[in-house]
Automatic annotation (TrEMBL):
SUPFAM superfamilies in the record: Thioredoxin-like
Stated family: Belongs to the glutathione peroxidase family.
InterPro entries: Glutathione_peroxidase (IPR000889), GPX_AS (IPR029759), GPX_CS (IPR029760), Thioredoxin-like_sf (IPR036249)
UniProt organism field: Peribacillus psychrosaccharolyticus
GO molecular function: peroxidase activity
Keyword Oxidoreductase: yes
Protein name: Glutathione peroxidase
Lineage: superkingdom: Bacteria
GO biological process, one term: cellular response to oxidative stress
Alphabetic keyword roster: Oxidoreductase, Peroxidase
Active site location: 35
Entries under Pfam families matching the protein: GSHPx
Length: 159
């Protein structure tokens, strides 16, 4: 099993297989518009714009499981991200990232890339998973880790 075995609903409603991103370096992020970490959208977009032509993609998955910080529907989320942060990277429909109804992709990610002290649970918005071109999870970053802090790692994976 790999990340390419999963499907997800894009923010516009259509289902897509993650196999569509095979061969790309991916950064998979659970996002929330009303979170204090929302300014990271701008760094995520900058990295996406900078490296998209080299095969880098950010995949944003809105989640409302942490203090209700993503209360809007998909249209509101999409508009907010585009208008306030210039987001053009792929955004997906709102998902759960923990618990009984967690999206299978996030269950897989947390099983294969535990956080601090081996914790498999996502504890907050903007937890980030870096995936290489073969679909291997290379690293997991805490919400407070800003995307520019691991830009060198992204560049190395793109070589």
């Amino acid at each position: 099993m790999s990340i390419y075995d999963f499907e997800a609903k894009k923010i516009t409603g259509e289902m897509i297989s993650l196999e569509a991103y095979k061969g790309n370096v991916l950064l998979i992020v659970n996002t929330a518009s009303k979170c204090g970490f929302a300014p990271q959208y701008e760094e995520l977009q900058t990295l996406f714009s900078r490296y998209e032509d080299q095969g880098f993609t950010v995949l944003g998955f809105p989640c409302n499981q942490f203090m209700g910080q993503e209360p809007g529907d998909e249209l509101e989320i999409d508009s907010f991200c585009k208008l306030n942060h210039g987001v053009t990277f792929p955004m997906f429909a709102k998902v759960d990232v923990k618990g009984d109804h967690a999206h299978p992709l996030f269950t897989y990610l947390t099983e294969h890339a535990p956080g601090m002290l081996g914790s498999k649970k996502i504890k907050w918005n903007f937890t980030k998973f870096l995936v290489d071109r073969e679909g291997n999870i290379v690293n997991r970053y805490a919400p407070k880790t800003k995307p520019f802090e691991f830009e060198d790692e992204i560049r190395n994976l793109l070589k």
